[in-house]
Amino acid sequence: MKSDFLWGAATSNVQSEGAYLEDGKGLNVYDTLVVTPEPGIAPMFCDTSVATDHYHHWKEDIDLMAEMGFKAYRFSIVWSRINPLGDDEPNEKGLAFYEQMIDYLNEKGIEPVVSLVHFDMPDHLMRKYNGFLNKQVIEFFDRHVEVIVRRMKGKVRYWLTYNEINYCIGMPDLVAGVIKPQDMTEAELISQLNTNVLIAHSRALETIKRIDSEAKVGGMIGTAPSFPLNCTSQDMLAAKFKNQMQNYLMFDVMTTGEFPPYFANYMKQRNITVDYSEEEQAVVRSASRKIDFLAFSYYQSAVCADKPEIKDTVEKQDALIREKRGPRNPNLKANAWGWQIDPEGLRFLLNDFYDRYKKPLFIVENGIGRDEELVDGKVYDDERISYHAAHIANLKKAVEEDGVDLMGYLAWSPFDFLSSHKEIRKRYGFVYVNRAFDDLLDLKRYRKKSFYWYQKVIRTNGEDLANDIDY
Ligand code: BG6
After folding, report:
1. Catalytic site residue 365?
2. What is the pLDDT of residues 265-308, one digit of tens each?
3. Which residue's CA lies nearest to atom 14 of ligand 1?
4. List of domains in the chain
5. Is 164 known to be catalytic?
6. How far apart are the first and last CA of the chain?
7. pLDDT tens per residue across span 183-193
8. Model pTM?
9. Which are the contacts of 171, defined by CB distance < 8 A and separation ≥ 6?
10. Which phi and psi angles does 353 have, rounded to 5°?
11. Could you give the count of Cα atoms lying within 13 Å of 286 in the half-sphere of its Cβ?
12. What distance in angstroms lies between residue 249's CA and the mean position of ligand 1's atoms?
């Protein structure tokens, strides 16, 4: 791997910080939304007031990252910590908090990679304006971005405009602060919200570039490539549609500045015209010429099958979009939450994206959620080690054998925090945080076995992936 490859890990601050209403922070959508459990999982949601207390442990957490040898660390600036309501003035204490964190990362030689929206829209913007469905919220977001970038200029090189922007469709409330209006169809929501978040992304990108011409800006999506269940044209078509709407749409627009034909046709077939002014289109086009890289999360692959009982194309497509989890892949194992583990799927996706976009790619999330127990101060997470080893082996093949331009690999995650469904049972960290579902215990940090393994991987620039750690 090239010597400046960005090895490290990533977190979502809204899921880790806690300090819920401290130092002027306002409530955000992650704090207030009632989450729906994942299919087949009994709900055990934590409240977010303490999470894993990263707000008070941030220095110790970064010291542990430095000990692992991180070259880069991705985190998010919680929107409601900077703008408690969203339509108000910036909160100096919030800005100062992230600035000291960024300064400390730079001091430690760890490149900060900053995400600007990550499930953290101020709750007030959802309740009063209906989030990104309202164009005023795009203005508030742009102002928010401007304040942050002016403050951090020269200290942050890599920016991600919007975490998993494409999931604004599957989870409009958490991802975009939107509750579907009753007088709007699903398809209208899909069309307008996709348009609006793309404008928000483009405005943010333009603002960052205007303030700091040295900054590198990327779009970020969540991925799960859909494979056809059977080798039939019908399943292939179904999977193609799913991939277009879920994995390609955002990157297609971000890199060309135009709606791709399949999306224009999606709207035409449903007689939908979106509110998308000439001026907004010009911003999206302009941003598409400046985007530096494409970032994505990858945890699993998916399977898609035709629905032969539905004859009408529009109805079939709508049903495919609504399907949250397709058929099981008979070739793959899954974790306890049913997420299908597919390391070769990552190699496939890297090739697929690189062929299509010819832009540097950046893996900014990849990991496995596990229910873990601390025994005598230790966590033997060999399953995590195998998961990362297999994925790293495949990204290396994509780079070294297939010629993909990959900037870095950020694992999910450096330390434990609450899952997007507010679960502490589903842990991702290389560092264990001692808290339980209903008891905060002492929130002490413990190095898991994978901590030492990942330290070795980074030290050897990805050459030595063997699980031979003496723990
Ligand atoms: C991504 C998000 O969807 O996946 C993260 O960007 C999230 O915030 C991660 O934590 C893993 O998902 P989950 O639901 O297991 O937390």
Report:
1. yes
2. 999 999 999 999 999 999 999 999 999 999 999 999 999 999 99
3. 420
4. 6-459 (3.20.20.80)
5. yes
6. 27
7. 999 999 999 99
8. 0.98
9. none
10. -65, -40
11. 15
12. 20
